[in-house]
């Protein structure tokens, strides 16, 4: 269900209904069939660190519907004989079938440590341990010991299978691919899903690299867009190209323009705020950034605009270039054209929220004067927020073109097609 956080706003409620109806389409599931059957295993002598009493999972499909997060931590040790990882996990977590664990492994939802010493002590906060994502079922030697983490209900990004990816490619060179990213999936693999992301989907469409390569070696991110944000994104075909483009961004040689949809018009001109990134926390709610009111002197403003590399890391600056009314589902909203001066995490969402201009459908960054009591939350993948990366101009010569080459994503902006 989509959320809209403007208390008592008929326009936003109507828009939420429109977007919800569009999201109610036939959903697909991801299925993995093993090339050879594996015999059912009996329970091993190891003891799971966590075992929930949920309904037995008997399908080899990864469910498309959202399920409560479930992460199993297993100390696999004292195996009496060689066992496949999926078999050993089923022996510990009996309400999940061996075949389903095979599917989770293929999906990128299972991590395993190197072989552990006999006296190894598992810490309460297991996320501190270095783990390696595993993508194929492996044989665990008898007597070996491994710490394994399995995300039993991985988060799905169904836009991956609903998108015609070749139609999303704006340009391809030997070094880069420019993509019109749809809303609804991340650029890079998520912690529990290595299949449904821009890097993997674009690679699959182009068949870059060898089919047997590790997914992480195929394409490289150069910058990111939020899951629920659509628009222009550049990915690299090799690590050298990724480094080159990252330097272009650091040197302030890329100009990014966005469209932000709000209920009220934004004031034309600069928005400046003090930026405070949040600390990454485990199990303490959504991770957000904070913006505080900041007034810059004319000298500082002129200096920063002349040389963006001199802007302190705790300063966020953007420019609202236009704010025009648009009709969406019979209601009037405002489409704001925004040029980023800095590139902070969640910058537009957080700065607009601070100015009581929360983006449409953004459940994480609310208006400061909203009277609702529901806590902020991360939007679900299918909840399209009012943010689109419209263009990217590169003020440096690359294989994508000469200095000043620009890429625009002016099609498939969801609120324009209503």
Put the structure in a nutshell:
The chain is built from eight helices and 19 strands. The chain has about 425 residues and is an alpha+beta fold.
Task: Describe the fold and architecture.
The protein contains eight helices and 19 strands. By secondary structure, the protein is of the alpha+beta class. The strands form four sheets. Strands 9, 10, 11, 12, 13, 14, 15, 16, 17, 18 and 19 form an eleven-stranded mixed β-sheet that branches. A four-stranded antiparallel β-sheet has the order 3-8-5-6. Helix 2 (85-92) crosses helix 3. The protein is elongated, with a radius of gyration of 24 Å. 40% of the residues are buried. Residues 1-8 and 20-59 have low confidence and may be disordered.
Write out key terms for the chains shown:
four-stranded antiparallel sheet, 8 helices, alpha+beta, eleven-stranded mixed sheet
Please outline the major beta sheet: 11 strands, mixed
Count every helix, treating DSSP H or I runs of 4 or more residues as helices. Answer: 8
Helix content: 10-25%
**Tertiary shape:** elongated
N to C succession of SSEs: HEEEEHHEEEEHEEHEEHEEEHEEHEE
Report the sheet-strand fraction.
Answer: 15-25%
Average per-residue pLDDT, rounded, comes to 83
Number of strands: 19
Structural class: alpha+beta
Estimated radius of gyration: 24 Å
Distance between the termini: 19 Å
Low-confidence stretches: 1-8, 20-59
